[in-house]
Specification:
By secondary structure, the protein is an alpha+beta fold. The chain folds into 2 domains: about 130 residues, Diaminopimelate Epimerase, Chain A, domain 1 (Roll), CATH 3.10.310; about 120 residues, Diaminopimelate Epimerase, Chain A, domain 1 (Roll), CATH 3.10.310. Helices cover about 15% and strands about 45% of the residues.
């Protein structure tokens, strides 16, 4: 039996293990994948393992496919909130991720703000899918993103086009996250994201929010602070620390449940024979 926490950050949901005992210290990919499968087990966009460290906490993050990713910013905000919830820290903590150290500040029991390095300048590029050219920008925010402006977000082909772009050869070998964004005014952005590793649209993506904000600034479509509406219905805020030039990402981060994963949670049935 494995003690877990369930957290939600802007619509991304996560399973978390806090200083798990030796036998559960790093679950194998197939177990993480089974736990994260919706409808069969508890379900989540990913899982992180949180441990105390001299400089704060360390976070090992795994996507729903069971494999590690260097960074998940909504997951990092949730990791910080869990550290506060457990009493490991009070209102500030450094979270060591695969992409480096991220500073986090607790706003309250439902919100956390991160301080991260400014993203690299976006690179304009076009990708051809089945004879159709998709114009956008490539941005690295710990993990790769491809950002496209899309006026009608409600009808955006996130599942089909997002999946095709995520696996396109130009992004090999690791693939990319794909963001469909709209800039209704200079201080607001709306976004939908197809996330690699989850292999589906998610309700939010923190690194996608930063990548898409960087594109909006480069195009002259945005000015900070920016309020960002996600598919989950939560608003995140992106701002810049004028003293350090670091970017700030704040918003929803909640511990919503804790309990015990039983052995039956790791059952992963084979795909139906007709697939």
């Amino acid at each position: 039996m494995t003690r877990f926490f369930k957290l939600s950050g802007g619509g991304n949901d996560f399973l978390a293990l806090a200083e798990p005992i030796a036998g559960d210290s790093t679950p194998p990919p197939e177990r993480i994948r089974a736990w994260c499968r919706r409808g069969v087990s508890l379900g989540a966009d990913g899982l992180f393992i949180l441990r105390r460290a001299p400089a704060g906490v360390t976070m090992d993050y795994f996507n729903a496919d069971g494999y590690p990713a260097d960074l998940c910013l909504n997951g990092t905000r949730c990791a910080a909130q869990l550290a506060f919830h457990l009493g490991w820290q009070t209102d500030r903590v450094g979270v060591q991720t695969g992409a480096g150290l991220v500073a986090a500040q607790r706003i309250d029991a439902e919100r956390v703000r991160l301080s991260v390095p400014a993203p690299a300048a976006p690179t304009e590029m076009s990708v051809t899918i089945d004879g159709t050219t998709c114009a956008g920008h490539r941005v690295l925010v710990g993990v790769p993103h491809f950002v496209m402006q899309w006026e009608d977000l409600e009808r955006a082909p996130v599942q089909v086009l997002g999946a095709a772009l995520r696996h396109h050869a130009v992004f090999a070998p690791g693939g990319t996250n794909v963001n469909f964004v709209r800039y209704p005014n200079r201080y607001r952005m709306e976004i939908r994201t197809f996330e690699r590793g989850v292999e589906n649209e998610t309700l939010a993506c923190g690194s996608g929010v930063l990548a898409s904000t960087a594109v909006g600034l480069a195009l002259g479509a945005l000015e900070m602070p920016v309020r960002v509406l996600t598919k989950g219905g939560f608003e995140l805020e992106v701002d810049r620390d004028l003293e350090t030039s670091r970017w700030l990402l704040g918003g929803d981060a909640r511990v919503v449940a804790e309990g015990t994963l039983l052995p039956s949670a790791a059952v992963e049935p084979a795909p139906p024979a007709w697939r």
